[in-house]
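User: Show me a protein chain along with its predicted structure.
Assistant: Here is one chain, sequence first, then structure tokens.
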Amino acid sequence: MNQEDYDTEEAYEAGTSAGDDDAEATRRTAGEAESSRASRGWWDRNADEYQSDHGAFLGDDRFVWGPEGLDEAEAGLLGPASSLKGLDVLEIGAGAAQCSRWLAAQGARPVALDLSHRQLQHALRIGDDVPLVEADAGRLPFRDGSFDLACSAYGAVPFVADPVNVMREVHRVLRPGGRWVFSVTHPIRWAFPDEPGPEGLSVAASYFDRTPYVEQDEQGNAVYVEHHRTLGDRVRDVVAGGFRLVDLVEPEWPAWNGQEWGGWSPLRGNLIPGTAIFVCERG
């Protein structure tokens, strides 16, 4: 990919997604191939709108772990910023590679990987200073032991049918002692409606129902898939992938953050957690 790919691409229009507005929301099983196909298509169609709506909050070179606005510069979950210099870092589900750019500014050598071609075109629009790779998180195209660190801010993990496979792939490409930090929607939020206002404060579904959330077209083809795992499931996935869980961070909603982002809001954020961040280490 190069800058010309972005400049000459005219097949997409910001915010449009063929048939997505008419998609039916349901809960049903969705396998690995269907989930991957749906995620690639959804993010390719909606990348423009996503970057338009959230680009200012995410910045061009800021590392934000979730809608609460927890910044890696403050949190240091990958380690002190001063310790990142010279390290090889893989960002999974990188979107427009904002986190990778922050890592590069600390002297790290990041690689930004995403399933969506259109998201990576936005990365090129911002700048061509970070290596980009278009690939599935379940099939990482790297040799064993290629990276010192791996990270993912709401990327890939919530959207895959087999999260243990992703954990094992990350484990494979990390060097011994490497750290793997990823954030996902906090599992408790699945029990509540995805609404930022008072209507989103009452339990509406079973926390223990792992049936995937699927949006499908008139033919029954999935156009968006998200997989629910309980907090215990996520811990077991990490361990099954060969990692040791070092920390589990549940960011509180800060007073300065007045934005609403989907079901995330100051109202809900002050009452229930919205994000879970898993800090893991490879043995």
